[in-house]
Structure formats: C-alpha cells, structure tokens
C-alpha cells in the first residue's frame, strides 16, 4: 500500500515594519511584503514571472544587522529577520537611484506642445483621436483640461505651436485648427458625470470671464452648486468685451457658455463686487462655502504723455472695444492711430476700419519682428488697409480747441536687448514726426482694478502686492483669506485666455479639496521628462521626417470682410484637419499613462539637475511595423530580454557594449 506523505511547506517568521508576519521558505522580502499588502515597494526590473534580477535598486529595504540597504526583490527571508521598508535613509536611496536612471533618460514624457500649454491639454492625444476620425472623443479629451475649446480654437495664443518640434522640419502642426474643427463640427454640449452626486456645497464665482467660467465648469462637474456673479450684462469677460466679433462670433461664444451653464450653474449678471455684494457677505449671509475671485485686468494703461486726459478722441483700445460691444459700433469719422504692437492693438485697428475710419495707423516703438501680436493678425490688418508706423514712440498729443489733431512721435532705433530679450528701443535725437489723426487708441497694456474689494474690511480682503495683483498659492490658487481663491489676470496681470482657463481649473480642484477634505493641497506631483533638459535637440534627429506643408486657414477676401463683423477665418474642412493631425510627429511617450518610472519620479520628488553628465542620443529603430526600439528610454533592466528568452522562448534581444555604452539590441546586429 502506497504511503500518503504530506509535504509540509516550511514557514519563516519575520518582522516587517514592526508587524510579525510569516512567509514560505525561499520567498523574497518583496514577495512577503506584497502578499501581506504591507507597503508599495517600488520596482522597475522585477517581474513575478521572471527570476529576480536586482538591477534597478529601487526596492531597497533596511534589514537589521546589515550595514547596507538590500534589494528586496533578491533577498530571501529568514527566521527572525527584522525589515524596515520605508524611512528617510531608504527614501533618499530610492530617490538617488531614480535620479541616476533619469540622468541619461533622453526622452519626452509628453510632447513639448503639451508642456507649453498652461492648461496641460493632451495635444498629442486629441490629434491622434482626430486623425483616426474619433472627433467627439478628441473633444472630450480637450475638455478634461479646457472647457472652452470653441473659443480657444479661434483666439488662443497657441503657445503649443511655438514649442512644436515640427518647427524643426517645416512648420508647426496646426494644433488650434484641429481643436476648432472638432469643437465646432463634431461638438456636443458637455455633460455632468452621471455618477456625481450633489455635494450640497455652494461656491460663488466672482467674474464671468474665461477663468471664472473654467472654475465654474469643473466645480459643477464635481457636484458643487455654483453661482457666477458678473458686473456686465453678459458673461464672457474679455472674450466678449475685448475680442471683436469677426474673430470670435457671438453665436459661437454664447453657445459654448450656455453649454457650461447647462451643468446647473446659476448666473447673476449686472451684479458687481463692492457695489452689490461683498466677499464677507457671500461667505456670511450668502451661505457660500468658498469663493473664487476672477476680476480680470479691465483697465487700459495710459500712455503717460502730455494732454492725454484733456483731449477729446483719446481712449484705451480696451475701452474702445468694450464700448463697441456694449453700445454698438460707432461711426468713426477721420483718421485713427492705435498705439501698441500686441493682439489688442491689432483688434482695435481692424475694428476701427470696420467702423468707417478714413485710415488706421498702428504705431509701435520696435520693428515688426518684435511685435508680440500673431504675425497672421498683423498680415490681416495690413491686407485690410492698416498702416504700420514702426520705430516710433508716442511723445505728445497735439490738439486744437481741445480736439485731437495729431500724435507727435519720437523716432527710435533698436539698442541692446532688455529683460524681455527684445532689443530696447532708444530715441534718435531730434527725430520727431507728427501723425495726423482724430482718434488715438492706446493698447500698451492693462491694469487690475482692486477697488471692488474695498467694501470688505482689510482682514477679509485677499492680499495684494506692489503690482496691484492678488497673491495666491501657486498650487491651489488660495488667497491669504481661507476659503477665498483667486486666479487669472487679477493674479497674473494681463495674460492670455488659456492662462485664465488653467487657473480656473486649478482653483476648482483645490476648492473641491477644501470642501471635501477641509484643506486645499493642490495636485499630485507630476514628473515629466523632456529632451530639451539636456540641451537643444539636434536637427538631424528629424532628418528622416518628410516635409509636409501646413494647411492654410481659408479666409474671406479683405475687400469683402472689412465691410462687416462676420467671421474672417472660415475653418478647415475634414480632409485638411486630418492632414494637420497626421503631421503630428508624436514626440510624447505612448506609455506615459502606464509608466512606473514617471510615477515613482513624481512620488519621490526627483531633481533632474542634481546628477548631470554625459548624455547618449541614440537612433530609434522603427523598422518593425508594431514595435519601436528606443534605447534613449532604456534603463537596462533587461526585462524585455528576459521576457523574450524565458517566457516567449525566443532569444532575439541582448545587451551590447559595456558600461555607459551598453544598449539593448536585436541578435546578430540585425534591425528589429
């Protein structure tokens, strides 16, 4: 008769983080920690299907009696062992290991365009979706970070396109063109997530511009009850009262705003802070649990020249554009001069032409190259008849009987670069010119107006700085007053639509934390590797990329469009939109959302600048139809080599070279 012999597994008793546990003989410390869910020990080279390797040294732990830290993935447990998995020494060691791995990690987690976008929109993601015809999905992805894609598709300053690496090949991808197409041609109104319940919390948003709308949108999507208070008759802020209709049609603007309000947001227009309510009143009798202050920068800067306040016909470009929206388009009889070189100056000039001005001259103290306005907008203004008077600075307003006759300007020349990097204009002695005009609109900057806060006692007002902007925590947008958050131009000074949108979203996430946790802490650390950290990317990197011309935005003819305020840019059709989306070189990593190296780098707060040295720049092997082999991203963990040989049974990869020059390559020097 056969004997039944029961094989008993030998158990090992040990202590981990002060907790007595047991494991099977032969198990590693990492095995036991994970089996008992004691801690999340980071690993990169480890795979439970493979033999332990111990190359990344992220999983180190402290074992009593050992003078050095030990890799938990290869250290076997033994009776009486006392293990610590996390303390300052261990954290420092893991951080150093990560910094060593990343010191030669020549790769982009996300494309440079996404890093340049203040809102962090996943540009590569939505371009890919649009290229495949998934336009609604592309729009949903945009709205995760930007609730105003129709607006931004028309008026964004396109910081993303400035940084687009396609510039090194031919021209940047028409990122904004694609955004506009998916938002206008395939857009559906935003929807509140079905699983979000009413929080019962009330939030007041003071200011209905892009920052306020953004904050309200993301708060409503988290179940909070939001009311927007706006001093002007309609929502939109500078979108409505600072950008002309030919650039941003009011029908499109109204529809996008209504889509946000349809999430259940209340609106009170014609209600001004300081006149109709105070911050203290909102938090007190109003019953609001938090407030977001988005007052903008509504005042146009003065030129500071003689007769500016006493001559009829002089105003800021901002006031001119706002009055056009509030009171209807005026009939301008005579010649107009616009002072400034930014987008607001161009907007004022083109609007003046549509209001019947005999002529419009744009006066700018530098050259055309230094003009901050989009060059396409400057081209459009010239096509419509505006003239540029460059290297000229306002000196004096010349008047007769209190009525403007001319703008006297000082001729300038360019000197050395100033703090902005642009060459500083310096006067040419004795060179003065009079430009005949009946109107002067100054577009040389904007200021905040904090007088609305004076209705609250000083201790209840958000702190301001010497530039008359409000101070806010960079991570949470919380002001010096608990529960009062702020953002946009009132914090930044005159900035951009997308900056205000980004502030609004950041504040909304922090307000949600404040309401649900009792404290605003801001977003989780988000590490992003970038090639440009290691210096300028060599042009030969893109030598194999085929040149593809950028699509041109169709426009109405200048002679026709100058007669009205109908839209000028007509938008791309689907074939041209796809062409632009396909031009994307996909510079960001496709594994960015599943990358443990990125996650650990953020968790351990790595500092790329701490360990620097020589950097290798390898060619990427794209010869395989489904797999790319990019040695620039390799951390030499050998998981790919071992998976192929030990699991798949194919020894197709191996380590080539020694030391710093080691890389993973296919066998026999062949391509992938």
Q: Kindly, what is the distance between the CA atoms of the first and last residues, rounded to a whole number of angstroms?
A: 59 Å
If you average the pLDDT, what whole number results?
93
Secondary-structure class: alpha/beta
What's the CATH H-level homologous superfamily of the largest domain?
A: FAD/NAD(P)-binding domain
Strand content: 15-25%
Strands of the widest sheet, in order across it, are: 2-1-5-3-4
Which CATH first-tier class of the largest domain would you pick?
A: Alpha Beta
Low-confidence parts? 1-7
DSSP E strands, number: 22
Characterize the main sheet: 5 strands, mixed
- Large-scale geometry: globular
What percent of the residues sit in helical stretches (DSSP H or I)? 25-40%
Query: DSSP helix count?
Result: 21
Radius of gyration equals 31 Å
Number of domains: 5
CATH architecture of the largest domain: 3-Layer(bba) Sandwich
* CATH topology tier name of the largest domain: FAD/NAD(P)-binding domain
Description:
- 28% of the residues lie in helices and 17% in strands.
- With 672 residues, the protein is of the alpha/beta class.
- It has five domains: 11-102, Roll (Ubiquitin-like (UB roll)); 112-188 and 548-582, Fumarate Reductase Iron-sulfur Protein, Chain B, domain 2 (Orthogonal Bundle), CATH 1.10.1060.10; 202-293 and 470-517, FAD/NAD(P)-binding domain (3-Layer(bba) Sandwich); 300-446, FAD/NAD(P)-binding domain (3-Layer(bba) Sandwich), CATH 3.50.50.60; 616-669, no CATH class.
- Helix 6 runs antiparallel to helix 8 and helix 13 packs across helix 14 (343-354).
